[in-house]
């Protein structure tokens, strides 16, 4: 799947830099529909939006469970410091999108025959690179077509 370990590490470092140098929320509501819910699952405190209340239960818990797993592991090993809790969702996204970048590079290599042009175009737009590692989680939940497309590229 990966073209090389060095290429993957380079892309992970790039995505992590994008994650840490952008300190804003792109879609603030999605923080409360994912990370806040995961925090509530693990620690039993925090605010739950009305969609998560038992009498409504409009959303699937699968997406927040991604974060809850990491929060639970941090809690289990007593590493659940505020700084780590704050940044772990961004780091998760950075790794997921690094994998998607590698899939894109491999796809470009198969279609065009040369992957570096694909990588340049993938990294070009500032907004795409800084916002992609943030909480645009509604896309992860609802846009199954894109998820299936990325899985096909893998």
Automatic annotation (TrEMBL):
Q: Which domain of life is it from?
A: Eukaryota
- InterPro entries for this protein: GPI_mannosylTrfase
* Coiled coil start-end: none
Keywords attached to this Swiss-Prot or TrEMBL record, sorted alphabetically, are: Endoplasmic reticulum, Glycosyltransferase, Membrane, Transferase, Transmembrane, Transmembrane helix
**Enzyme Commission (EC) number:** 2.4.1.-
**Pfam families (alphabetical):** Glyco_transf_22
Gene Ontology biological process: GPI anchor biosynthetic process
Annotated transmembrane regions = 65-85, 91-108
- Name its cellular compartments: Endoplasmic reticulum membrane
Topology in the lipid bilayer:
Multi-pass membrane protein
Please give the Gene Ontology molecular function terms for this protein. Answer: alpha-1,2-mannosyltransferase activity
UniProt enzyme class: transferase
The record's GO CC annotations read: endoplasmic reticulum membrane
Q: Which family does it belong to?
A: Belongs to the glycosyltransferase 22 family.
Q: What is this protein called?
A: Mannosyltransferase
């Amino acid at each position: 799947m990966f073209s090389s370990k060095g290429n993957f590490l380079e892309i992970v470092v790039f995505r992590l830099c994008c994650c840490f140098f952008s300190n804003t929320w792109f879609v603030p509501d999605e923080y409360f529909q994912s990370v806040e819910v995961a925090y509530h699952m693990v620690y039993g405190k925090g605010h739950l939006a009305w969609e998560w209340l038992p009498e409504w239960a409009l959303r699937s818990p699968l997406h927040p469970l991604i974060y809850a797993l990491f929060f639970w592991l941090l809690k289990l090993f007593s590493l659940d410091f505020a700084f780590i809790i704050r940044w772990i969702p961004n780091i998760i996204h950075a790794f997921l999108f690094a994998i998607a970048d590698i899939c894109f590079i491999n796809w470009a290599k198969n279609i065009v025959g040369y992957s570096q042009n694909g990588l340049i175009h993938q990294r070009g737009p500032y907004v795409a690179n800084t916002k992609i590692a943030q909480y645009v989680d509604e896309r992860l939940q609802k846009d199954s077509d894109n998820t299936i497309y990325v899985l096909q590229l893998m």
